[in-house]
Amino acid sequence: MARDRLALAILALAALPTVAAAYDDDSPYPSPTVPSVEAPRDLEVTPRLRTRVYVDQEWTQGAGLHNGPGSVDRARTTATFGVESRVADAWILGLGARFDYFIYDFENPVAILGVNDRLLRFAHRVTAGPSATYIFNDRWRLTTRFSVGVARENEASVADSLTFGATAFIGWRIFENIRFNVGGTARFSRLFIDSGVPNLLPIAGFEWTGAESWGETQGIRGFGIGIGADGAYVRMSLTDTTAVMLSARYESQAFRLNRRNIVPEGIFSEQRVPVGVQFEWSPADGVYLVAHVDGIPWHRYDVRDKSGNRGNGVVADPTLAGGFGVAFNF
Question: C-alpha 191: how far from its chain's center?
């Protein structure tokens, strides 16, 4: 209990200025889920405050489990908050927060557990942290991000669920609309070390935005491409208020289980690759309504005990996911 109280105090201090959680992800690119929430380009030349808020609800259709009769459904609610300001000619400082709430519905998970018993129902992930970007000149910049959080089944130990992250990457703008980013992300936690989920991730990617001259010849108002270590997207602005995006990305999460779980204080991890399409509509300046549909051709679940010893892992059948969200950028 004392360790949990100390861990909660650490998390509260980290989240105090930001609400409750961190970046949308560790990628320097516009989020594959919500590109519209990305920064307006004028922040790079205008010293002003920028705030971003995004709320999303997603459902994943029940997927059958290989090597067994079971299946699993999942629902996820996500809320993100971020604020950035250019505080000097060479510096942009920011604070970010994210909260995810997961509801899993495992039916007969014998392929994972070896027995038909309760595995996981409710879990949440909360992260928070600052960012800093140093602008060397019009072409070069260095961005760093730090985060602290928890990822756990309800009632699991907070101390054993703590996660820490650090990201650094260099951005190189070759032309006005073309940028390369190179760097890496490190995540420090027994959750990642013991779960088999990668804890060292490279950042090496390419972003091309605002190709108006090419887009107009194709009947498109704007066009953008992003390719990174965690995914890729193609985004097209069809009109001043509508856009469509195709994306493919890698997602992973790991949660500490509680003492009453059939795997007491163990680790549940999930990895998947969604490939989908997203539609955006902006009914007012700075407001975006989003709907997205994904196919999930690859999806894996793993369970490990408290010491990190691996139990059964199972790949789920291909399935579908979909959701909707609202973003505010002001």
Answer: 17
